[in-house]
Amino acid sequence: MFISCRAVGEDGVQLPFDVLEQQARREIADCDANLRQHRAALEAGADPAIVTGWMAETQARRTAAETRMRPGPQRQRISREEITRRLAAIRR
To answer: Does residue 26 form part of some domain?
Structure first.
């Protein structure tokens, strides 16, 4: 049985794309909430230099999550017979 995997999770384990997409969507939602809090902190008078750093870090995390949502290149699955044939060709 094969599970279609498109990417590797943060812990190095291959996961189906829909699981990765759900994780990325949650990360984006968390980042958006954090960005709203950062903006509120700025409006409340927090130090702009500090808050700007927080915002840059959060935006970088959000961008990384968006990137994980994009489908990667499709890997072509080959059968056991094709692997055997290719190995036999190499041995010749």
So the answer is: yes
